[in-house]
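During the reporting period the student researcher (J.K.) took over the structure-prediction task from the postdoctoral fellow and processed the backlog of single-chain submissions. One of the processed entries is reproduced below for the supervisory committee.
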Amino acid sequence: MYSPNHISRMTKEETSEVEEAHGNKSLYLYPPFYYIIISIIAFTFFDPNDPACMEILTDPRTTIPELFAIIRQWVPQVQHKIDIIGTEILKRGCHVNDRDGLTDMTLLHYCCKAGAHGVGDPEAALRLSNQLLALGADVSLRSRWTNMNALHYAAYFDVPELIRVLLKGSKPKVLNSTCSDFYHGTALHIAASNLCLGAVKCLLEHGANPTVRNDKGQEPAEVVPDPMDMSLDKAEAAMVAKELKQLLLDAVPLSCSLPRATLPNYDNIPGNLMLSSLGLKLGDRVVLDETKTGTLRFCGTTEFASGQWVGIELDEPEGKNDGSVVRYFHCLPKYGVFAPPSRVHGCNVCLCSSSSPVSQPKRNFNAMRSPKDITSESSISRYACVPQITYPFGCSCESKMFPVLQD
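J.K. obtained the following structure tokens:
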């Protein structure tokens, strides 16, 4: 794979060391992975601007895993060429939703990361993302390591240019989707906590809900770092934090049918009234965090935390408990889980064929309303049967994982 000129740049001592390490066998008997290790002697990172590296990049013998190993290098030289590297990966037969075996990230995930100002290049990332979306890239796919979808990555790396493109065809699907790695906060929470002013403005312009609360009960405005806690050398960041918090606070009344001060507080409402106001009852089938399905077994206050909580018996053993110290409902071990009511809703998905790809249930983060409004016009629906099909890492039947290749 590497040219003889490339190998000839090694010294005699370096060549003998490699031969000794690999049993004095010919270099060409080893897969390309070993040649990439050798190249580190000449380069500390892969630089597509170097003619030798560009020759490797465009060589048809360079495999998809090797190209993913290149794309993982977080240096400007690589990230500024994301569109070229991504195109080379697609040319070798990679499906638009296939994943890197090491990070479980798709090309669209890498695009959103490569759009970061400074290290990345938003224009190059935008070119590749448009190409991927035209080929049918799924914006809702998540990396199993971070549980982040493409919108979460774009918010985290503050790339409003990509946020606009991602939301064009999938706004209802991902706009207010939550991420467990950020206490089940939305993309707005992620952007706010990282002082990503451009991303926050863009998300609000596209209708992101500034009243959604994470697992800690915080709205996006409440996760903005406090400027008073910042040192003097971070004066610029403190100014951004102040502007960001005010922006989010000003957005709250615009998204609610009631003034913020009069929003309903459900903490002291009995569990049965809470469920009734949401159009649910014990025994109903529900969805938790868009991915887990189960049966509603409990609703009310608990001893482990303040506020209202619901207890769900999951269909799969993915839970932690049923309140084993103080038992709130009965289920098999590892099938019980507790969650705030805001993270649970009824299901409206019914799959009759086990061969069909599973689509993630959609969450509806409408503006908060009074119990009367919710009862009369509930945004919560149920489903008749629960999809039991799961694919590893959230892949569709068309996507596949590429083997791990170390950087």
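The committee noted the following: The chain has two domains: 43-254, 271-393.
J.K. will present the remaining backlog at the next meeting.
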